[in-house]
Design brief:
Number of strands: 6
Distance between the termini: 8 Å
Helix content: 40-55%
CATH superfamily: P-loop containing nucleotide triphosphate hydrolases
Oligomer: single chain
Number of domains: 1
CATH topology: Rossmann fold
Bound molecules: adenosine-5'-diphosphate, magnesium ion
Order of helices and strands: EHEHEHEHEHEHHHH
Strand content: 5-15%
Length: 206
């Protein structure tokens, strides 16, 4: 079993959006997937609760103190992939998630204040000795995403190739517990998520 932690000290950067979409993608690709929601707000868990019966994923809300046992249990139950969604502004939970993860994915909006805040998240992954990379999320049309990529790389922070654009489909889909694949199967957001997940599979070797 491989574990990916979605971390960003900044709220609203897209952690939950990325976590739930990776979980749906993995499940569609027949990976046995556990979605573990470490954010006390429980958005990923609530999203799963609002999915239709029969479509619910294996998702639990947990504290960082429960994480070791939950991951052990998921592995014993035959899970291929565990996805950890986390809260912003919680260094200690983020550090624990990073320690248990094989890879840390850091969603970041290509905006000045978001870019400035990335250093502390990258540092958490570094201290945990877990490889990490940024995924640029909610990029507007134009050059901003590529400028952000260059700025992050100059700080020595890895950035994965796929970019998620700013698209209404991401916020509309999750309202009633869906993913962009279920909301607009042939839409551009679904294509982006496929590319993101293909990249994650390669990074995790899962
Ligand atoms: N690529 C995107 N395009 C449009 N809206 C997005 C995108 N990513 C996230 N959002 C929206 O931004 C808000 C914050 O995203 P969320 O995933 O909850 O962030 P976090 O979990 O990091 O706090 C949500 O309303 C979400 O629907
Ligand atoms: Mg969230």
């Amino acid at each position: 079993m491989k574990t990916i932690a979605i971390l960003a000290q900044k709220g609203g950067s897209g952690k939950t959006t990325v976590a739930v979409h990776l979980a749906v993608c993995a499940t569609r690709q027949r990976l046995r997937t556990a979605l573990i929601d470490l954010d006390p707000q429980g958005s990923a868990h609530d999203w799963n609760e609002s999915r239709e019966d029969g479509e619910k994923l294996d998702a639990v809300k947990a504290t960082s103190g429960q994480l070791a046992a939950l991951l052990k249990h998921a592995k014993a139950a035959g899970a291929d992939l565990a996805i950890l969604d986390t809260a912003p502004h919680s260094d200690s939970v983020a550090a624990i998630a990073a320690q248990f993860a094989d890879f840390v994915l850091i969603p970041c909006r290509p905006a000045r204040f978001d870019l400035k805040a990335i250093g502390s998240t990258a540092q958490i992954a570094k201290l945990a000795k877990t490889p990490a990379a940024v995924v640029i999320n909610a990029a507007p049309r134009g050059k901003l995403a590529e400028e952000a990529r260059a700025a992050l790389q100059q700080q020595g922070i890895a950035v994965i190739e796929p970019v998620l654009q700013q698209r209404a489909a991401y916020s509309h889909a999750v309202i009633d517990g869906r993913s962009v694949h279920e909301y607009e199967p042939d839409g551009k957001a679904a294509t982006e998520i496929d590319a993101l997940f293909a990249c994650v599979r390669q990074l995790l070797k899962v």
